[in-house]
Amino acid sequence: MTDATVRVAIAGSGCVLPSGWGVQRFWSAASEARSGIALLQSKWFHSERVTAFGHVSDEDHQTSRQDVAQNLQRYCPPSVIWGVSAVRQALAEAGLEPGNDGLRYGLYCCQGGYTHPSLVAYGELLHECRNESGADMRRLAQRVLQERALDPFLVLKSLSNGLLGIVSLALKLECECNAYMQGVAGNLAALRQACAALQSGRIDAAIVVGAGSELDPLALAALAEAGVISTDGSQTLRAFDRQGTGGIAGEGAAALILRRADDLADGPQTCLAGLSAHPRVGSLNLPDKQIDLLVSSASGDPYKDADLARTLARAGAAHITSSVPVTGILSGAPSLVDLILARNALHAQRVPPIIGLQQPVDPRLPFVLGEGRDAVLRDCLVINRDDNGFSACYQLDYQAAD
Amino acid sequence: MSATRIVITGMGAVTGFGFEWQTLWEKMLGAEHCVCPWQPDGVGDGTFPVRYAAAVDMTLLPEALKDHPAWNIALEKRSRFGWVAATQAVNDSRLAPDQLREAAVLCASGAPQHMLADMLLTLAPDGSAPGWQHLMPRAGQVNAEGSLRQSNDRLARVIADGLGCEGPVINISSACAGASQAIGNAFQMIRRGEVNVAIAGGADSVLNLDTMAALYLLGAASSEQRWGVDLCRPFDRNRSGLIAGEGGGFVVLESLEHALARGATPYAEVLGFGSSLDAYKVTAPQPEGRGAALAMQAALDDAGLRAQQIDLINAHGTSTPLNDVAETLAIKSVFAEHRHYRSLTVSANKSQFGHLIAAAGAPECMVTALACLNDLVTPTVNLHDVDEQCDLDYCAGQAVSRRVDFALSNSFGFGGLNTSLALGKYREHGQ
Questions:
Q1: Residue A168 touches chain B, beta carbons under 8 Å
Q2: Range of the domain at A342
Q3: What is the pLDDT of residues A224-263, one digit of tens each?
Q4: In terms of domains, do A346 and A302 share one?
Q5: Which residues does chain A have within 8 Å of residue B130's beta carbon, measured at their own beta carbons?
Q6: Is B355 considered catalytic here?
Q7: Residues A127 and A46 placed together within one structural domain of the fold
Q8: Which of A48, A205, B158, B174 matches a 20 to 30 Å C-alpha distance to A96?
Q9: Which residues of A touch B416 (CB under 8 A)?
Q10: pLDDT digits 0-9 by tens, A70-79
């Protein structure tokens, strides 16, 4: 039976993001107001309308690859490699070694809704097999089947449970598991399942990991058409700013290790005290008390952000910040990244600023502009809104070491 | 053991057999299958090596479903099947709209199916290399039913919006174990008291050139010609790979208290759920079925059942050489005490309606529930020459009448993901 009174703590975290490899790089970037968003670069395509992207650097990708055995890499799109690396970082911080520590694990993964190989895998093939009426399907089939012109692992790389499979192989995990999709909703489902498994006593440690990348022309086209990302050539994501011009996509991975708080040694603890969700952000169930810090997602669209700000106002937070201008809009791990930011802020007793915010959509709200600030932080809310309309709220409580 | 009892009160299935679970059940009891000749669109000359599949036959669409909105808005094929199946399940449950408002929707679907025609738009008119810049000016030509405009969570959203569900909407992507995971998670959510009602299942279709080509190149899909349409033969010496099906399946799960309060009659009770990972290989199951055994044992433990209480196992039974041996070994290890595996009946539904990939676990869960309800076990068809490594009672050829108090339904996925659901005959006063 699940005992909801059992407190669940974040025991470790890891990430590979546009801000760099590792939580320390992410926290430094957020604290020092350095955005990881840069010029969109791809050897496969070029766009004059979508010109910015939150890239994971080649250097950080190479660092991450060292965490994945060579024989597994052929099954992995880049985001899965980052996911494995993020998990290893989180386990290291938590001081855990699956298989050697005697703990029972649960593995809960999330991936973005768009999967890696599409134009890259098909483009040349289609180019060769084009005829006057479209594609010569017979020729296409012949090339694929007889000449192996298509990567046979394409179907595996396209599976949104690839991360689950590869993490389990990399860590030799035979534990209970699930794989979820789609940003905020997927992160919430994974975190909820992890907390319930810990609270029931079924497992002793939960690995929650999300990863995704939309660095793909078809995926970016879909995001542009849906109004999620800007197509005006903008280079900056201005969260909650009246001058905002829309969103910028990012990529990366993040992982958390969750444990029962009572199982952890004495020391500062950040506990996940509440999770709630609703299809409408305005109907989110928020705690009935003053909150010290609020970490919120943002779209970069001033109208959408003004709408979201009305919900943020209900929270009555002392400080509001956002990680989105640091990373861009993430598909696989948006809430996990915000939870990492919140945990670091609670531990450091410092609030990072919202990068680039100059004219807030609601000047009455305590958005943190310019530079970060020291503050007494005992608790934090994370509010996330997805572009598919799904919204989630997490409450974190911080307990300093005695 | 769970204090809250969870029951199945509605079912909907779209398969090669048609659009109603009643048809599926009747034909399965009659030892029929719905595998037919198939070739990808545009390759109708018989050169494509995979020649059979259990496709949905739209000519079987009943009059009452012809006006369903799924056929009239831009959706991927799989999402249409899923929405119709979910609607059928809700209608079957007789839940009123106001009783659905708090319901959760848990939905599994597979990898997105790119439309080749959309990708052709990335080719430059002058024949130069493909590029995104060529697509944007022609965005209006993008197929509204293709993955470019249909993200992977589209089906869950459509079901939630279409049926007026405002509870949690969860997208699950765990390959061939997806629908089973969705049902298992829904069961856990109700048990934890998060919701009283959940609509859970999945939908999928891989019947297109690129996905079937990839499955063939991986050695998963059968290209066997010898047996004609009778080539899906789990546990047979001559099995040669999976036969893809398509469709969708959803069940309505409720707390028993909620179901009885509104006068519903349960089909069966969901008692437990277990999952595990092989941690062995991406493309092959652990040869001794260790991960599968862990999942079955976890489901038994979760249900508070002893292995000796199980009467039926609805096997994953893919008709692939590796899976069927590994699953047999897993069953023999979990049910080793008193050689209980000799008392079990094992049935493989995929022999009758093919492999529905991410959706597979949903109709298989329904068939398991119906076995508990009716004390009837559907057959494993085309099983004529049992593999010597597969030495259980697979209910070959014909349905059998036997007492089914408790059953497991197994689903395993690419990447080494295993799930098992424990179901039981509904009894008013508990198990």
A1: yes
A2: 8-116+158-399
A3: 878 889 988 888 999 999 999 999 999 999 999 999 999 9
A4: yes
A5: 119, 123-124, 126-127
A6: yes
A7: no
A8: B174
A9: 165, 168-169
A10: 999 988 889 9
Nearest CA-CA partner of A385 in A254, A318, A294 = A294
Q: Touching check for A118 and chain B: CB below 8 Å?
A: yes
B199 phi-psi bin (left φ>0, alpha ψ -120 to 50, beta other): beta
Residues in B touching A175 (Cβ below 8 Å)? 276-277
A171, closest residue in chain B (CA to CA): B279
Q: Are residues A75 and A215 in the same domain?
A: yes
CATH code of the domain in which A352 resides: 3.40.47.10
Domain boundary among A155, A180, A213: A155
Strand-pair partners of A135: A130
- Do A143 and A257 reside in the same domain of the chain? no
Out of A49, A107, A159, the one facing B175 most closely (by C-beta) is A159
Contact B112 A115 (CB under 8 A): yes
Q: Is B185 helix (H, G, I), strand (E, B) or coil?
A: helix
In a domain, A219, yes or no: yes
CB contact under 8 A, A277 and B168: yes
Quick one: CA dihedral A358, A31, A63, B218, positive or negative? Answer: negative
Q: What is the pLDDT of residues A199-214, one digit of tens each?
A: 999 999 999 999 999 8
pLDDT tens for residues B47-67?
Answer: 889 999 999 999 999 999 999
For position A241, what pLDDT does the model report?
Answer: 98
Q: Is residue A101 part of a domain?
A: yes
* Count of residues making up chain B: 431
Statement to judge: residues A189 and A221 lie in one domain: yes
Q: Is B214 helix (H, G, I), strand (E, B) or coil?
A: helix
A107 interfaces chain B, CB cutoff of 8 Å: yes
Interval B121-155: pLDDT, tens: 767 766 666 665 666 666 667 666 666 666 677 88
Helix, strand, or coil here: B239?
coil
Query: Which tokens is B402 given?
Result: 């036997």
Looking at residue A165, its pLDDT comes to: 92
Q: What is the pLDDT of residue A117?
A: 46
Mean pLDDT of the region B90-118: 85
Contact B133 A47 (CB under 8 A): yes
Domain B6-112+150-424 has CATH 1.10.3720.10: no
Chain B contact present for A189, CB below 8 A: yes
Catalytic residue among B34, B107, B165, B176: B176
Residue with the two structure tokens 């055995």: A69
Q: For residue A216, is pLDDT > 80? A: no
Q: How far is the C-alpha of A208 from the C-alpha of A177, rounded, in Å?
A: 10
Residues 317-346 of A with CB under 8 A from B: none
Any domain includes A320: yes
Domains of chain B, by residue range, sit at 6-112+150-424
Which entry of B34, B107, B316, B390 is annotated as an active-site residue? Answer: B316
C-alpha to C-alpha distance for B21 and B93, rounded to whole angstroms: 13
The H or E element containing residue B38 is none
Same-domain pairing of A194 and A310:
yes
Say how many domains are in chain A: 2
In a domain, A376, yes or no: yes
Do residue A119 and residue B173 have CB atoms under 8 angstroms apart?
no
One domain, residues A102 and A139: no
In this complex, do A148 and B275 lie within 8 Å of one another by their Cβ atoms?
no
Position A116 pLDDT exceeds 50: no
A155 interfacial to chain B (CB closer than 8 Å): yes
pLDDT in tens, B379-422: 999 999 999 999 999 999 999 999 999 999 999 998 899 999 99
Q: Is A224 exposed, middle or buried (0-12, 13-18, 19+ CB in 10 A)?
A: buried
Residue in chain B closest to A154 (alpha carbons) equals B214
Q: Is the pLDDT of residue A20 over 60?
A: yes
The pLDDT value given to residue B216 = 86
Alpha-carbon separation of residue A327 from A55, A64, A79, A248, B268 (angstroms):
8, 18, 14, 9, 48
Q: What is the mean pLDDT of chain A?
A: 90
Contact A130 B278 (CB under 8 A): no
